[in-house]
């Protein structure tokens, strides 16, 4: 019957979803944040590097107050 496929479908769906949910815990453990930033485009990589350089934490929201003032003589 058609319902004989259900146990196999549940097993396959479960096994395919394990890495997705495991990455949440692994990222939290490894980098201290459960979410990664998208690095597909060059602009995103540049913004990640800028945020890391300015605040040493690329996941913290940065505004103009995060940029240090230049000292003028």
Question: How would you characterize the overall build of this protein?
Answer:
With 73 residues, the chain is an all-alpha fold. It has two domains: 35 residues; 28 residues, no CATH class. The protein is 55% helix and 0% strand. It contains two helices and no strands. The longest helix is centred in the first third of the chain and has 26 residues. It is rod-shaped and about 85 Å long. The model has no long low-confidence stretch (mean pLDDT 82). Its main location: mitochondrion. InterPro entries: NADH_Ub_cplx-1_asu_su-1 (IPR017384). Belongs to the complex I NDUFA1 subunit family. Keywords: Electron transport, Membrane, Mitochondrion, Mitochondrion inner membrane, Respiratory chain, Transmembrane, Transmembrane helix, Transport. It is a single-pass membrane protein.
Largest sheet, if any? none
Helix content: 40-55%
* Overall pLDDT metric: 82
Distance between the termini: 84 Å
Low-pLDDT residue spans: none
Beta-strand segment tally: 0
What proportion strand?
under 5%
Q: Rg from C-alpha positions?
A: 21 Å
User: Quick one: overall form?
Assistant: rod-shaped
User: How many domain modules?
Assistant: 2
